[in-house]
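Training component of the fellowship. As part of building independent skills, the fellow (R.M.) carried out the full modelling exercise for a liganded target. The chosen ligand was NAP. The inputs are recorded below so that the supervisory panel can assess the work.
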Amino acid sequence: MGDYDIAIIGAGLGGVYAMHRFTSQGWSVVGLEGASDVGGVWYHNRYPGARVDLDSLDYCYSFSEDVWRSWQWRERYAAQPELLGYLNSVADRLDVRRHFHFETWLNAATWDPARRRYDLTTADGRRLSCRFLVLTTGQLSAARKPGFPGLDRFRGRWVMTSHWPQDEVETAGKRIAVIGTGSSGVQTISTLASEAEHLYVFQRTANYAVPAQNRPLDGMVQKELGDRLPVEREQLLTDTAGGVRIPEPQHPMSHYPTAERDAMLVSQWETGGQGMNSVFLDQGRDPQVNDIVADFVRDRIRGTVRDPAMAEALCPTYPIGTRRLCLEIGYYDAFNQDNVSLVDLRDDPIVEITETGLRTRDHHHEVDLIVFALGFDAFTGAIDGANIRNGQGITPTDRWRSGPRTRLGMMTAGFPNLFLPTGPGSPSVLGNLFLQNEYSIDWIADCIAHLDEKRYASIEASEAGEAEWTAHVAQLAQGLLRLGIDNYMVHVSDDGSRTFIPYIGGVRRHVASMREAAAGNYAGFDLR
Ligand code: NAP
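Fellow's submitted model of the complex:
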């Protein structure tokens, strides 16, 4: 397939931008994508009800006024078809599609220290090489596959939300089981409830879901934002935690009289969205403060779900915001329908899948369709899937037994010219991935231009630079309630020690650190 300056793996929102940015710079660039088209997460997650849980006006590209004006967002939270349409439209506008090889899986990438290049092979045996390897594979892309005994003998159909089939999946009038109640489960349950003859929700852990308060968007708001796009964008980069326009907490809860505190919670409930995670400055660290916010949400669940036992089973017991908050549109209402049952797996675990349904310890549920919404092998799954090896034959995650180690969430020591934009140690899943991909890829482009100008062949995180950033990431995470709760953002080592994987310092501090490193001749990196 040839020798390139840069290979980009993945044609999702990061890959599309990376292809545009790098080809604009005049480098030879190739993209590999396993799917048959662009879109990444929005290509694969086409399950009924799939929708973004950040505001559409934040969750889109902001690097170009032309691109901004080319698309009119219809809803506060865009649904998957609109997001996929947007990514296709941008890919056409930027003319990046022709540089990607679709239905092409990367099988292995091996660094050759003598040639200072990665040699890549694809699953169908083709070979290519590149100086720089950029993984825009996303952090939530490698699916957690169902491993339930008996699945192979099930005579109905089964699907995964994370890789929803392209062909029609018949749901109307079917008996459907959904296993998993994270963001994907919550969204698809809410939609399938109105289509299924009967819907069985298999819940292992109840999660918090707050109203999305979705609504049609006023085109004028988007136009006005577009008129001051560069200023708005710089403000998101330098003055926000998540790269989104969500008001940030100003004071600890104790600052407010009780009536004002309660009014703030009601107001946030009515506003909708992820802001329920950050009403008070100390709710992520102080269990008593957190409990007041959590109780507010639990009371709303009890006020919505009419069956008290079911309501109780749907009430989460962990601190709110310590796992990703789900946004809901009719989720709890669905449990008031006669055709929706909740199977609480804590009381009655799944034993096996049979020819006709699912057997829990105490019951057998006959179904036509099983929907697995089991989540992802987050952060490391896609890196491992790429099978990248350095000159010593080890993979990036071989060195991460006690938690991911990176410099700025961008590179890991021992792997020259391998970039992991939005990787572990960056804000990543805690914020706006469009914006983070843009600034990370801009940083990579500037970095490669710098290497070329100064005639360096390679860059990698230095051991000291990596150790410093990894310690900083861990230090900021100390005392977070979420560090103590099992979820995909926490790495648990064999010795039981826990590492919070993303960077809790926020976009503003991350961008400042990235800019500082670049201005300081890539401090914390070895240039050779
Ligand atoms: P998730 O949050 O990891 O949820 C996975 C669910 O599957 C959990 O309820 C989990 O239960 C359950 N599960 C896993 N293995 C199981 C087993 N063996 N038996 C029974 N239950 C099992 O995954 P997700 O819902 O796909 O969401 C992942 C992330 O993707 C979200 O947090 C969000 O960042 C992103 N996402 C965003 C959107 C959006 O923008 N609206 C939509 C979907 C996803 P336990 O909790 O007990 O482990």
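The panel noted the following from the submitted structure. Residues 51-53, 140, 179-185, 187, 204-205, 324, 345, 373-376, 429, 488 surround NAP (CB under 6 Å). The chain has 15 helices and 22 strands.
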